[in-house]
Every structure is written in structure tokens, then in C-alpha cells.
């Protein structure tokens, strides 16, 4: 797995190397044409004015066709180079981001569960969208040094026509601008840039959290408090953005001051040169220094990019190496740390029983790899769980959690999380096994029916059954269900249990079940107490009765 954002960015720079080279070349041509265009224009205007002051003979002798043609050519080349630089540079950046975002998502999905589960939906969105957008500057700014170098070379070439002293003035001004710009950016832009990334993440996190709790906020009349909290985060973001803008203004002022002083120094140094050459040197100096604007913007955005890199590296933290990654196909026995160790043969059906809060759900989460601590006593086919790769462990289980989480999308979108290539027939079969096919058939659009934000258009029982159908669609040897019939009425619960029994008999899939309701326990052959020895289902039923 990728260990750092720098590794990802370096790989994408190699992959997008051709586009980045075209962008750098176009940026250099753009800067070169801009300096030559301004210098030639200054010389042409001054020389034409001098010819006009020299009388009719001087005007007739002055060749204005060649300079004007050169100006038009440079203007056309500059326009084309600007388009090429934007097209190639942003194409490379966007293609790279299109690869980096899925890589980050894979890192979240395949990495340590603690890293993914510790992120709220708002914070995860901030990492995958806003922080990755900040990384774009790592690609776009690659052409900036080429543009600055081309502008400086062209400027030096033109100012040398007025003498070596003006060229030295331009060189000194460029060095001064870059050094002061770097130092100023570190003082006024780096920290605000970091604050913007962090504050924007907090704002998105706050908005997402309060939106999820909006019914409770309305019920308990807490909307004003929620709005005040969100606005406090928004104010912090606005203040950070304001400081970023202040820094940009200071950088612009620095460039203007250095450019003004440089022009004055160049004109002073070119006082013995002809007026057209002095004008050429002065205007070339202005545009040559403007060629450093890309580098100055990179200095300004360094803080935001560094903070984005820090935040994204937290997502990209690799999982520890595991000892084994067996063939994922085929059922295997399980060992659970109950009463000194309980072994479940492939295809077994067992219920985990015990009072609320005794750790049944946590045991399931450790078994399927959602928790990486406290794995002592867990094993698959005799191999301790801690020595197996997360991808192999996850391949063994299809999980329907107690808290059914759904995507904002369609029925099919949610089902295909478990099996992206599943056919419509397979989707309908999974819905039928969960007792939900009639409800979906009655919805406008069927499988393509929109279920709203987090499944808001479905009832609680329907959301639970859709989550169950998603688990049933996953081709895994063990089915892990946590309170699969909670919130269902008696007839619906009976239907779901009957359909599950038929499915288990048909597929031979193993079952691990947690339920406080007695009816689902009929699916199991044995019940396992977390604090007692394994007990028979008959004894459990008798105790429940």
C-alpha cells in the first residue's frame, strides 16, 4: 500500500510526464513571448516617436512593417502558449487527481479500520475533496520555474541591448523578489494556509454532524445552538481565508514595489543608451519580473499544500504486514475465544448470546476485521486472525450490522456495494431472500428507485432489510448478522426468517447471529454464551420461555 502522499504524487508525475513537459514548455514559450512582445513594443513606440520627431525623411526611412509583424506574431504565439500551458497543465493535474482520490479511498477501505472509523463523514469528505484539491498545486506549479527562467533569460537578453548594467539590475531584482517573496510567504501565508485546510474540514464535519441529527435538533428546539456552532466554525474559516487574502495582497505589493524599483534602476543604468533601447529595457524588466508570479503563488500556497499533505498522510498510513494471505475461496472453520475456544465448522449456524453490553457486537467486529485490537483467541482455519491479511479476513464474511448504513442513491447502488458486477436477477434474488422484493417492485423505478439521504425515504425496517439484502448478495462463506429483525413486526420477521432458512439450506453458508429476539434463534443449531460454555439451542429456548 502507498505509504505517503509524496509517493503517490511522484508516481503520478511520472505517469503524467508528457503532459507536464508540454505544460512546462508552453509556460516557457509564454513567458518568452510576453517579454519579447513588451520589449519590442516599447522599442517600436519609442523609435517611431523619435522618427516622427526627426522629420519627414526619418519617417519615410523608418521600417514599421517588420516590427509590427513581429509584435503580431508574438501576440499570437503568446495566446497559443497560454492555452497550451493551461490545457496541458490542468489535464495532467486533473488526471493525477482522478488517480489519487481512488487511491486514498482504497487506503481508507483496506487500511487499519481504526483510521477509517475514526473519521466522520464530514472529515472524510474534507480529506477526499478539499485536501486533494490543495494537492493540485503540486502539479500546476511545476511549470512555474520554467516560466520564470524563460522570462529572466529573455529579459536579460533584451536589457543587454541597452548595456550590461541594466541586465545586472534585472538579475538583482529577480533574485531580491524571489528571496523576499519566499520569506514573506513563510511569515504571512504558510500558517493561514494551514488554518484554512483545518477550518474547512471542521466546518464540513460540523455541518454533516448536525444535518444527520436534524430531527432531534428540531424536536428539542436546538436549531439555534446548532446554527451558532456551525457559524463559529464558518467564522474561523473566514478569518483564516481573510489572512490568506491579506498575505496575497502583501505579495502583490512586494512584486509591485520591486518591479518599480527595478525599472527605475534599469532606466538609470541605461541613461547613456538610445531612448528606444532604454524603453525596451524598462518594459522588458517589468514583464520579466511578472514571469516570477507563478513561483510567488506557489510560495503562497505552500502552507495549504503542506497541511493537506499532513492530513492525507494520516489516511495513507499503511497496515502492518501480515504473515499469510490464503486462497480466499472455500469455507473454513472459525475459532472464537469463548469458554477457552470454540471451533465452528464450515456451514455451522451459531448464535452469540448474552446480556446487552457484554461485547457480542465487538466480538463480531473483531472477527470480521473492523477492530484490530484484542484478537487473541480468534482464528480462521487454525491461523490466528492477527497473522492474516485484512483482505483475506474480509473475504470470508458478509456482514449486516446492527446500525444499517445506506448510501444516498438508488436501491441498486446500495446492493452493488457488496457485488459491483451482480446482475439484476441476482439483485432481485437478494431482495427476495430479505423479504423486500414486493416493496421495491412497488416503488417507482424499481431497482433504480431513489431512496434519499441515507435511505430517508425508507422505513427503519426497510432500511434494515436492504442492508440484509446487501449482505446476502456478497459471495462469502460466512454470513454475520447483528440484530437482523430488530424493528420488524411479527409477520415480516417470520417472512424474513423463513426466507433466510431457505437461503442457508440452498447455499450451505455458515451463520453467526446476534439477536435479543427469540424468533431468529430458530435459524441456529447452537448458541454460544460469551461468559459461559457453549449451550444448546433447546436450553436457550427453554430459558427464554
Features:
545 residues, alpha/beta, six-stranded mixed β-sheet, four-stranded antiparallel β-sheet, 22 helices, 65% helix, 6% strand, elongated, disordered C terminus
For the termini, the CA-CA separation is 52 Å
Strand content: 5-15%
Strand order in space, largest sheet: 6-7-8-3-9-10
Overall pLDDT, averaged? 84
Radius of gyration, Cα only, in angstroms? 34 Å
Give the helix tally. 22
- Beta-strand segment tally: 10
Envelope shape? elongated
SS-based structural class?
alpha/beta
Question: Helix content range of the residues, please?
Answer: 55-70%
Low-confidence stretches: 532-539, 541-545
Q: Sheet with the most strands? A: 6 strands, mixed
